[in-house]
């Protein structure tokens, strides 16, 4: 396998870096410990070599999006100038911009990125963050079982229900589930709820205002609850979190699964029961609807309290370039935010399954872009979980979401 080096990238002239720093500058960048800081260290080492006078230090922390958010909220609330650049979950740029914790990024062509990232990172017409790497939810499926029963990859949720029933009846395995997905009261449950809702052509929030379609939302709730009630999913699906789905599919206990890209490597790993029997595809749609997925990924932002905002902006433009995206794909298996990088021969040689990932990412939609997203998320995930637990009926859950979000998004 041919590995792209940053030396080649930077000396080729493909990356436009500052010719020289005006003075000795020390930048501090926050990177989640879950996101391969050692790989980013190699990227930053080359940046330092090509940018005399600039030194970049990495600060790590936050094994989850929630832990990272709690830490950064504390730092930013104190107007702390310690951090110059931070990595943010895709749901957070609007919050940081509204709070005055980040600064707009000038002279960036967002059309170069996958379209959903332009929407997620643009607030009031200003670009407030740039993609570090992309992610989305995928439909994982057992290639061997679909082939055994002559089934096509489902494009609607009803097709998935029928295919799952065919396999479950044929296998007669009491431990096998038709579909695993996230219904615990976690962030992933927000995406679960939105997938069939979006596929009906509906938005939840537009220009900061609630646009809830109660009929479409009730259909979404009823779809997921129906999967639990009819045995397509297990009865206690309300207790299933993201990594539970990954473990179940990896153990060979699910025909289909809804999960993020990280699950691919483990499903194909040495300890997996389904290695070599895994496919990924676009998520199904409601009947007559559009196949869509939920956008994930992480973004670079410049702290409003940085004492070196120009140098910090130059750094994130470098980190969010196609060339660095190629390097991160080859050396870290991180999905790029640039469509053309998915088709790069070196990238596909290193991560062949990326050829199946691009069609999924092209259907991605960001969760509501609002400074009050934390309240939106909490409302949806807790109510969705209550419906899946059987505590609340689908229509009642939707009414509760509407009432609560009407107050939040005035």
Walk me through this protein's architecture:
With 410 residues, the chain is α/β, with parallel strands linked by helices. It has two domains: 6-135 and 295-365, Periplasmic binding protein-like II (D-Maltodextrin-Binding Protein, domain 2), CATH 3.40.190.10; 137-294 and 369-408, Periplasmic binding protein-like II (D-Maltodextrin-Binding Protein, domain 2). Helices cover 44% and strands 17% of the residues. The strands form three sheets. Strands 1, 2, 3, 6, 7, 10, 11, 12 and 13 form a nine-stranded mixed sheet that branches. It has a two-stranded antiparallel ribbon with strand order 4-5. Helix 17 (373-388) packs antiparallel against helix 18 (394-408).
Draw up the topology in text.
Layout lengths: L5 H6 L13 E8 L4 H14 L3 E8 L3 H13 L7 E5 L3 H7 L15 H6 L1 E2 L2 E2 L2 E13 H6 L8 H15 L5 E4 L6 H13 L5 E2 L2 E2 L3 H16 L12 H9 L3 E7 L1 H6 L10 E4 L11 E10 L6 H11 L2 H11 L6 H4 L2 H6 L3 H8 L2 E2 L7 H16 L5 H15 L2
Parallel strand pairs: 1-2, 1-3, 7-10, 12-13
Antiparallel strand pairs: 3-12, 4-5, 6-10, 6-11, 6-12, 8-9
Helix pairs in contact: 8-9, 8-17, 9-18, 17-18
User: What is the CATH class of the largest domain?
Assistant: Alpha Beta
Class computed from helices, strands and strand pairing: alpha/beta
- Main sheet attributes: strand count, strand direction, barrel closure: 9 strands, mixed
**Residue share in helix:** 40-55%
């Amino acid at each position: 396998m041919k590995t792209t080096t940053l030396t080649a990238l930077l000396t080729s002239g493909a990356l436009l870096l500052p010719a020289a720093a005006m003075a000795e500058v020390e930048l501090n960048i926050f990177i989640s410990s879950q996101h391969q800081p050692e790989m980013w260290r190699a990227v930053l080492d080359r940046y330092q070599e090509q940018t005399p006078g600039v030194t970049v230090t990495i600060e790590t922390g936050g094994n989850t999006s929630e832990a990272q958010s709690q830490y950064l909220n504390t730092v930013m609330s104190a107007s702390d100038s310690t951090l110059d650049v931070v990595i943010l979950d895709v749901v957070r740029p609007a919050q940081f911009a509204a709070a005055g914790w980040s600064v707009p990024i000038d002279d960036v062509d967002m059309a170069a990125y996958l379209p959903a990232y332009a929407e997620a990172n643009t607030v009031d017409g200003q670009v407030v963050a740039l993609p570090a790497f992309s992610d989305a939810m995928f439909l994982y499926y057992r290639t061997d079982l679909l082939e055994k029963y002559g089934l096509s990859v489902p494009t609607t949720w009803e097709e998935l229900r029928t295919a799952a029933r065919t396999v479950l009846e044929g296998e007669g395995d009491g431990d096998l589930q038709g579909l695993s997905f996230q219904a615990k009261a976690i962030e992933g449950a927000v995406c679960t709820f939105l997938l069939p809702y979006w596929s009906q052509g509906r938005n939840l929030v537009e220009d900061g205002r609630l646009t809830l379609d109660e009929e479409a939302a009730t259909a979404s709730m009823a779809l997921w609850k129906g999967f639990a009630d009819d045995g397509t999913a297990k009865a206690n699906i309300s207790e299933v979190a993201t990594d539970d789905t990954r473990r179940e599919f990896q153990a060979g206990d699910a025909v289909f699964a809804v999960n993020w890209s990280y699950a691919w490597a483990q499903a194909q790993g040495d300890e997996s029961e389904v290695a070599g029997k895994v496919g990924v595809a676009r998520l199904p749609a409601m009947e007559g609807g559009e196949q869509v997925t939920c956008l994930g990924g992480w973004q670079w932002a410049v702290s409003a309290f940085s004492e070196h905002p120009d140098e910090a902006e130059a750094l994130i433009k470098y980190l969010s370039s196609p060339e660095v995206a190629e390097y991160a794909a080859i050396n870290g298996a991180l999905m790029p935010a640039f469509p053309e990088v998915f088709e790069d021969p070196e990238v596909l040689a290193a991560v062949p399954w990326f050829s199946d990932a691009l069609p999924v990412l092209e259907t991605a939609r960001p969760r509501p872009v609002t400074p009050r997203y934390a309240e939106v998320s909490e409302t949806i995930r807790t109510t969705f979980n209550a419906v899946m637990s059987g505590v609340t009926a689908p229509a009642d859950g939707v009414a509760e979401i509407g009432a609560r979000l009407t107050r939040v998004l005035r």
